[in-house]
């Protein structure tokens, strides 16, 4: 089955200004499916945008199905940055006969794009579409590190049969999916009054990494190592405060501000591991002045900018590009090793695989902060090291 079977073209009138585009704007820099489907044999692309016109699983936010074209209207007016972009817009996936059909379409598109070494940028739709995004990794024979930017954990009671789900409980489907290829889950920006203590206990027992919004109140750069650990990211626009992103029926007064959301998106683009990202729950019905559409367009712009600023310094490249640091624990139980990139000053810690767990590698590399190294220098074991080691067993 060809990719073209999944997509409907975009009406150029929906995103083209009356005066047309300037030569520097993304509307002329992007190959957009308006008549002929893009030819992957003739052209090389790095990033593929596509919309999903399905909001059936979006709890109290169904108008999100209309999001993709409202996003395009703002995005293609933005100027290209200091990079030569190779972006393709594949158009929209129409909602299937059932929501399960939509998930399968997303799965097949995501899987095919990743195999072509093209990063999908998904514009939803409800955040339950994250499940379809996740399914795209099923046939790739790799473990997945999933990062969700959200103000709560979407693990409510799911009464749907099969693979159908809702935006408030789709994580259940991911956690329980068989075969299980989820290695780690991280939540960035949850707000405690939206999360019950039982859910927090579940996350702790599974050694998942969850981070309160308040952790980043003074320093948004603390999100970078968490984001850098992701293979796939799902961004709920409801994680942004209502003053900056009102176009969501479930928006709340607190959350990340617009600038912080853009910085998170740029960190995502710079992540050498990342192979897909989805932006969900933007609802144009609540966007009276178009500001949320503009913010989403700028977030995707920053993601693209981050992608073209990738350092390609994951510690598998020549050792001359890295500094190795060794520390000893106070109790004498052993030493810890850290790796620092000379190109970006970013840090990783080495967590050893248990004996026999990996035939090809001795260590699992985890993105970390300088503070984790300082903790080890003081003879203490960083919590991130211990949680990762537990998951490797």
Question: What attributes does this structure have?
Answer:
single chain, 393 residues, alpha/beta, Arginase, Chain A, 2 domains, ten-stranded mixed sheet, four-stranded antiparallel sheet, 20% strand
Short structural description:
This protein has helices at 26-29, 67-75, 99-115, 130-135, 170-176, 197-205, 224-228, 258-270, 291-307, 370-377, 383-392, and strands spanning 7-8, 30-32, 47-53, 87-94, 119-123, 144-149, 182-190, 209-212, 232-236, 276-280, 322-328, 335-341, 347-352, 363-368. It has eleven helices and 14 strands.
**SS element count, helices:** 11
Mean of pLDDT: 94
Q: Architecture of the largest domain, according to CATH?
A: 3-Layer(aba) Sandwich
Give helix and strand order, one letter per element, not per position.
EHEEHEHEHEHEHEHEHEHEEEEHH
| Count of distinct structural domains | 2
How would you characterize this protein structure?
The chain is an alpha/beta fold and 393 residues long. The chain folds into 2 domains: 3-309, 3-Layer(aba) Sandwich (Arginase, Chain A), CATH 3.40.800.10; 319-392, no CATH class. The chain contains 11 helices and 14 strands. Strands 1, 2, 3, 4, 5, 6, 7, 8, 9 and 10 form a 10-stranded mixed β-sheet that branches. β11 and β12 (335-341) form a beta hairpin. α2 packs across α9 and α8 (258-270) runs parallel beside α9. The longest helix is centred in the N-terminal third of the chain and has 17 residues, at 99-115. The chain starts with 6 loop residues before the first strand and ends with a helix.
